[in-house]
Amino acid sequence: MKPVRFDEVPGRLAALAREVGKRYADLGSMFAIRDLWSRIRFLAPERPEPDSVLEKALSFLADSAKERLGAYGIDAEQAVLYGDEIAFDLAELEQEPSLSLGSGSFQIRLIDRQVTNGSWATIYRGDPGGDIHRLAFYSLKGGVGRSTATAFAGWKLAQAGHSVLIMDLDLEAPGISTSVLPADARPEFGIVDWFVEDAVGQGDSVVERMTARSPLSTGSRGELWVTPSHGHRPGEFVAKLGRAFLDLSGPSGVEPWQQRLGRLLAAVESHRKPDVVLIDARSGFHDLASTAVTELADTVLLFAVGSEQTWNGYRLLFDHWKRFGVAPLIRERLQMVSALVPETDRESYFAQFQEESWALFSEYLYDSVEPGELDGFSFDLNDEDAPHAPLPIYWNRGLAEMKHLESLDEQLVEAAAGKFLQGIERLLVDLKGRDE
User: Fold this and answer.
1) Same domain, yes or no, for 239 and 155?
2) Which residues of 188-210 are buried (b: 16+ CB within 10 A; e: fewer)?
3) Are 57 and 20 in contact (CB under 8 A)?
4) Which of 40, 195, 212, 323 has the smallest number of Cβ neighbours within 10 A?
5) Residue 42 and residue 55 in contact, taking contact as beta carbons nearer than 8 Å
6) Could you give the angle at the alpha carbon of 339 between the alpha carbons of 338 and 342, nearest 5°?
């Protein structure tokens, strides 16, 4: 018999749900949990009455699972979990991202249990920063100039009179804080220090010693503060980093590390009182990146270069958002950035980049709108206000040769990132307009 593969499971569950919907009426929906070994179990709030419709449907599901799902199914006697046998509240599952499989008459809502707690499909539905605007600088791969662009934005916004805070959340590859802070100006503590101190109830004692003013804001009308990944004396950095992603248990229950990070950010904001926060996020699909993108920021700058690797990576992410039905919650926060635009053939390169970006957004995030319709979230290819319309950052030899960003040449920055920085200022104006 041909093995059932992981990617086939949702389709087989959908077919099973449709069959249940035809056999048994008025069931609505039912949760299924895919555990850490990717095996499927069905959940029932309580044990059903004998010979009831629910009892028959559960028996059918249990008897069919192993045959239909192969190695991802479980023997019938273990395939169904009941409310009194599970260690979590079924009502809480309603708030978790799930994949709806089946038809209108009956659906199986598939929830994944993963080794890590981060979820790209859990989108914060409110205003993450309140009156403080938070911009996340994110890329799928490193080496695209994301941290340098964060520094440019902080410098420009401070010049314009903003109080800006940069958070270095690329904890496993610290970069921006060492670029914009000289060694003798770095604060005593950093983010990984706070995580270990907070675990023993001492987080508040380091918050006021976690930020330092960058020389980039010298002479500016505003201020540029930086919270680094570690302090000026890293100490046992690796040992501390290995404890950063720790969920804490307390009287009120378990506090995931993602919530702890949100608490830290709120504490630093309360101390420094910025009006703009720039988050230099970790690259890739790490939980730290997902937290910055989906929970902490009200605007997400997606850095990309015109390569198939880049577009394929964003397809994976956008497809995930679309499959879990959360695209409408995240798409208005996104803004594409064309990084490292080459010196030669810029116009053709940029035009091709914009076409690829528009195709990506159109396939996964934009609504299908008929000609003449006014409703729907959709944009034309050349709409400069669309999230797919890239803000350009041009490769510049002078900037590429700079080893430190403690001071910047305004002409070089303008040549490389002038249009990008104008776009940042426009985004902030739009955010302010939404607040009003």
Assistant:
1) yes
2) ebbbbbbbbbbeeeebeebbeeb
3) yes
4) 323
5) no
6) 100
- Tell me the mean pLDDT in the region 115-122: 66
- Residue with the two structure tokens 């501390």: 240
Beta carbons within 8 Å of 296's beta carbon, 6+ residues apart: 124, 128, 129, 134, 136, 261, 262, 265, 279
106 and 137 together in one domain = no
* pLDDT over threshold 90, residue 94: no
Q: How far apart are CA 30 and CA 142, in angstroms?
A: 41
Please identify, among 77, 112, 147, the residue that sits at the C-terminal boundary of a domain.
112
| Phi–psi pair at 3, nearest 5 degrees | -65, 145
Task: With CA atoms as reference, report the closest residue to 282 among 167, 149, 151, 172.
Answer: 172
Sequence-distant (≥ 6) Cβ neighbours of residue 217 within 8 angstroms: 154, 155, 158, 164, 223, 224
**34 & 106 share domain:** yes
CA–CA separation, 41 and 18 (whole Å):
17
pTM above 0.90, yes or no: no
CB-count burial class (<10 Å; 0-12, 13-18, 19+) for 137: buried
Structural domain including 80 reads 6-112
| pLDDT surpassing 60 at residue 92 | yes
